[in-house]
C-alpha cells in the first residue's frame, strides 16, 4: 500500500502544479465528463482494489447495492463507452472519491492520445490555443509504477470475486 500512497502523492503534486499554472483547469472533483464516457471498463491493480474496497465497505448498503448492480450490468455491456458505476450522477461526483483508482485520479492528466484516452474538453482547449502546455503521453510514467502494485483486472472481475457482495 505504501507504493500506492506514494504514487498518489506524486500524482497530487503534479496535478497541483498543473492547476497552479492553469487556474481554469476543469479536472477536479465535480467534473464528471470522463466518468460518463470511459473508453473501457476501469482496470485496477490488487493494491488499488484493496483501497477501493475500503471505500466501498464504508458506503451505506443501498449505495453499495446500486454500485454492485451497475457493475453487473457493466459486465454484460457491449457499447463502446462506459459510465463509471461509482459515479453519483445527481451530484456529478465519485462516491468513493478518496479511494478511487489511479486511472480516475489522473483522468484529464493521464493521456494516451493515440488510443483516444484523453479528455475531449481539454483537447478542444488545446486546439483552440487556450491551453498551451499540455504534454500528451504522460501515461508511461504512471504505467511503470502500477506494474509493481499487483495483478491487474477489470473492475467487473474484482467485483465478481468479492465475497459478501451479490451481483
Task: Please provide a written account of the structure.
By secondary structure, this protein is mostly helical. It has one domain (2-149). The protein has helices spanning 2-21, 33-36, 46-57, 61-76, 102-105, 120-127, 139-146, 155-160; strands spanning 43-45, 87-88, 93-94, 152-154. A hairpin with a 4-residue loop joins strand 2 (87-88) and strand 3 (93-94). 25% of the residues are buried. The model has no long low-confidence stretch (mean pLDDT 82).
Give the integer mean of the pLDDT values. Answer: 82
Output the strand order for the largest sheet.
Answer: 1-4
Q: In angstroms, what is the radius of gyration?
A: 16 Å
Order of helices and strands: HHEHHEEHHHEH
Topology, element by element:
Blueprint: H1 2-21, H2 33-36, E1 43-45, H3 46-57, H4 61-76, E2 87-88, E3 93-94, H5 102-105, H6 120-127, H7 139-146, E4 152-154, H8 155-160
Antiparallel strand pairs: 1-4, 2-3
